[in-house]
Amino acid sequence: MHNTEVETAQSQARRAIVLVARSAFAAAPYRQMQQLCDLAAALPGVDHTSFGFTEQGTPSLREALAALRQQDFSDILILPLMLPIEPSFNAWLTKSLRRWQAEDAAPWPTVRIAHGLAESPLLAALMADLVTGADATPPIPPLDRLAPEGSLVPAQKRRVLVCQGGPCNAAGADLIWGHLRNQQDRQKLRVTGDGTMSAKSTCLGPCNLAPVLQVFPEGTYYGGVTEAAVDRIVTEHLLGGAVVDDFAYHPTGRKQLLR
């Protein structure tokens, strides 16, 4: 390639950065993420910044990537902001990215995952600054006693458990959990139909069918769950009362393979 062609390609290359956190519920963390985006936008060679979440919070990482794909970016860098990061993080995120690419045949830009914060040589200086700044904050006053607080017993009849065992985490269970929680919020599932509550669970048992979730009161197991599967489970099972057989696995007394 001639020098002029290299210069033209470089001038046309556009990089986007997606800052990634686990979850956000209130307005304050969204403002913080936008502040971090503004800082990243000032970095050399960065044409656009946005953020997304791997668990609950909008936009999800997949939604953030989908929005960027509608624009003319040649390179997307995913920048994780979490501490600590499990050793399996890059593995399940890479697997999920490949699945998303396979589910959408349209061309994708180059996607990279940056190192985590713990690997930065500047982390010690940042911690020192935070410790110094903490000296100016007021101490937390002690309380004489804690006032008792009551609780409401949930009226919702349905429960969805999302497995957080090792194989399910390695298969991207955090993304499935986040998508379920976002849909629960968007569709007001707590107060719609029989009412639905969701929770993370330790190992649910059928590890080779990961990622796995279980719907009660029927106790139906769903395996190989994707975002599209969650959407169908919400519509057909949680709201419609019908088991989604395409993803359901029933106890047979014999080992079953992921379909």
UniProtKB/TrEMBL annotation:
It holds the Pfam family 2Fe-2S_thioredx. InterPro entries: CbiX-like, Thioredoxin-like_sf. Signal peptide: none annotated. Keywords: Lyase, Metal-binding. Gene3D superfamilies: 3.40.50.1400, Glutaredoxin. The keyword Metal-binding applies. The keyword Metal-binding applies. Transmembrane segments: none annotated. This is (2Fe-2S) ferredoxin.
